[in-house]
Amino acid sequence: MKAAPEAQLRLLDLQELDTTLDRLAHRRRGLPELAEIAKVEERIGGVADALVAAQTEISDIDREQKKAEQDVDQVRARAERDQKRLDSGQVSSARDLENLQSEIASLNKRQSDLEEIVLEVMERREEAENRLRAVETDKEAADKELAELAERRDAAYQEIDGQAELTRTARSGVSGDVPDDLLKLYEKLREQHRGVAAAALLRGQCQGCHLQLNTVELNAIRAAAKDEVVRCEECRRILVRTPESGL
Fold first, then answer.
1. CA-closest candidate to residue 114, choices 81, 67, 62, 57
2. Is residue 53 pLDDT above 90, yes or no?
3. Would 206 be classed as within a structural domain?
4. What is the secondary structure of the chain as a DSSP string?
5. Which residue of 8, 46, 153, 195 has the smallest Cβ count within 10 Å?
6. Which of 167, 190, 224 is the last residue of a domain?
């Protein structure tokens, strides 16, 4: 392949810009905020589960409390009804009177027991509310931390994307100075060699694979025409000759 020496030198400028773009893309993917966000999101997921569990617990306790209070009301209403019968003097039989008094005593005992259950349920509800408030506090803190991390991430994205846009603009200008066939080869080699397709020959060493060329290889490059596109025998990257090549 043939290309003017000036066009070959532009490959080094193009490679530098592409390396910068690759570095920016790597930096964008590896922002520390991304790992921190993932951890916080995982924490929020756990908090969300705990929040549902706490809310469900309170809902269950509320149903339990409502049932216990209804039981108390029913027993109280029956005891009051029996007490009215007793106070009205409607019961004249001694045996019926004794049975009624016994039932009232039993109902009062049952009411007392049920009221103890209501109090115990209310205490459990208060404890559940405390747990719910603690979970809500954790969620609020996690949401706040996530928002702050997202803000830092977005600011970093904006900075990186701004640099990348400027670099792409510069790349567009440089690539226009490279012939199409050479540019096509360059792009192909970039895919094959982890983004590095062109390297300078510096004091007899390929800056792509950093291996020193032997005398035979250097003599072949010296003998090549200036517009000949040469390749490194080791890494097969485009080898660009410069005044510091040591030829």
1. 67
2. yes
3. yes
4. -B--HHHHHHHHHHHHHHHHHHHHHHHHHT-HHHHHHHHHHHHHHHHHHHHHHHHHHHHHHHHHHHHHHHHHHHHHHHHHHHHHHHHHT----HHHHHHHHHHHHHHHHHHHHHHHHHHHHHHHHHHHHHHHHHHHHHHHHHHHHHHHHHHHHHHHHHHHHHHHHHHHHHHHHHHTTS-HHHHHHHHHHHHHTTT--EEEEETTEETTT-PBPPHHHHHHHHHS-TTB-EE-TTT--EEEE-TTS--
5. 46
6. 167
Report the predicted TM-score, pTM, of the whole model to 2 decimal places: 0.75
The predicted pLDDT at position 96 comes to: 77
Residue 88 has pLDDT above 90, yes or no: no
Could you report the per-residue pLDDT of 173-218, keeping only the tens digit for each? 999 999 999 999 999 999 999 999 999 999 999 999 999 999 999 9
Q: Which domain holds residue 52?
A: 31-167
153 within some domain: yes
- Mean pLDDT, rounded, of the chain: 94
Q: How many CB atoms lie within 10 A of CB 222?
A: 10
- Same structural domain, 20 and 35: no
Count Cα neighbours of 144 within 13 Å in the Cβ-side half-sphere: 6
Check whether 141 has a pLDDT greater than 80.
yes
Note whether residue 80 is domain-resident: yes
